[in-house]
Amino acid sequence: MSSVASIAQSVGPGAAKAAARKRNRNVGGANKRPGWVTYLLLGAVLLVSAYPLYYVVLLASSTQEVISQSPLPDLIPDGHLRENIERVFNSDIPLMKGLVNSFIVAAVQVACVVMFSTLAGYSFAKLRFRGRGPLLVFVIATMAIPTQLGVVPLFIVMKNLGWSGDLRAVILPGIVTAFGVFWMTQFLENALPYELIEAARVDGASMIRTFWHVALPAARPAAAMLALFTAIGSWTNYFWPSIILTNQNPTLPMVVRQLQASYFQDYSLIMAGVLLATLPLFIVFVIAGKQLVAGIMAGAVKG
Amino acid sequence: MSVLAPDKPAPAPVRPPRRVAFSQKIGRWDVKVSPYLYISPFFILFAITGLFPLLYTGYVSLHEWNLLTGQGDFVGFENFTSVMEQPNFWLALRNTISIFLLSSVPQVIAAILIAAVLDANLRMKTFWRMGVLLPYIVAPVAVGLIFSRLFGDQYGAINELLGILGMDPVMWHAEVLPSHLAIASMVNFRWTGYNALIFLAAMQAIPRDLYEAAVIDGAGRVRQFFSITVPQLKATIIFVVITSTIGGLQIFDEPRVFDSTGRGGADGQWLTVTLFLYELGWGNQKNLGRASAVALLLFVVIVIIGVLNFLLSNRIAASDQMVKKSKKIGGKR
Fold first, then answer.
1. Does the interface ipTM go beyond 0.90?
2. Domain ABC transmembrane type-1: where (chain A) (predicted)?
3. Residue contact A145–B50, C-beta within 8 A
């Protein structure tokens, strides 16, 4: 772009006109295709992002002997993947239980977060009620509280409820999030016109019917992104489950940790476990990663 | 209802007028109460799982409180003083701040640079963005395990690479600073791409005519980046710095799985505050009172560093604006 401008200045008014035409096409230089250096840089970033994951696949498909001989595995997977996965399932660590538990926790949390956040977001964005402003500010303020601060009393509460060691104790604190409420409020503010709500009300729909048939369909794109974020958060969460659950009734991150603690020399087994714990989220990412990227891009704070 | 009644003459006599009034009442009640009903799940659940524990932490921290036997005597600030007398607390605090600095500073810088590269008019935009985000879906526990092996003292790929470059192997699991570097690299692996996308979104909102004006003034790409892009990202930089402060100071998963014992190293080389808290409450000591005291102390540290960060990034951004203003005045001359 700078070259375009300098040519325009040096050659004179006739050339300037042509250059200006070119400039209009390339607004701010942003529409010019970047050169190979850019792709080289991005390729390097991609390599750093993807190599550790590929490394998991490599170790998970090697034999233990190969791994202990050389620190750098071959670049081609070795074909012992199935055997290693079977070894994880046959170990005394309850992997299957972890898979099922993580799935249940994630499914319930995603469903609840999306439902409650959409309800609250619709209310904050489109309904008039006393105390709306301060309550919304309160919701946003709660996002700044670190989890560690309440973890001891939360443990005591769950113990008194008789829920310690139970999946309910993991699920309950995660079924509403301030982020979700804020996210939905922001989205519905713009995406849902008041006319639609009014039309439904004039037609005699009750409040909840209006929400169900007007607000919920409009919220669908934001709900999909919120579901993805919640699923990732739930699937990767370790600190709280490791406190409240037992090793016999674990979630997947706890399984990975147990594999490490018990089989700390057997990296092909451990990495097969890591692979199994990561794969479900990876599949979701491949299918819906586009939306996730779009979601982060839309939800960013704009300067 | 009465306005609508003439349109439907047939059912009118069947319906007693009192019921009409009643349904109208329900409708009004519906409008008034529904908003509160819709927001109530958040507030009720937050009260149980967020607000109450928050307040109760203070109460627990002032008592003798065993994991198994429960509440004991009121001891005042004894839990706080005893925690602060333990050398491990200060060790953990030092490690946490060190790991936090080693992760968040390079992370923010790398994220802005990656965002600047992604901001070009790329072919296969979504592919590159997804590639950058890929590490975000890997659980920190898994990241910790992968990097623990990559940074292995004897059979690690990183040491092997250093050997090829003719350098001595580094004892990533034995020495203090190397272990902090390794753990910080795990955090950076997971979060740099995510933050890059946040920066990218903010970059795309910068008005393009600012760049055009800079080009006409003869500014190169580097100058454009420092004089337009960075100052325009002020709010986003503050946001990312604050969120990574809160996250970075709570670090637990990655140091926990950096070795198989999970205690932060033989001499506490990479013991963090949250790891220390976990050991106090659910490790050998089973002392929930002291764990609560550590939680509160950690919160104080987070608030202090958060405020410092805010002031610092605010000042950096403000000084940039001063430069811009003075340049404008200079330009008029």
1. no
2. 99-288
3. yes
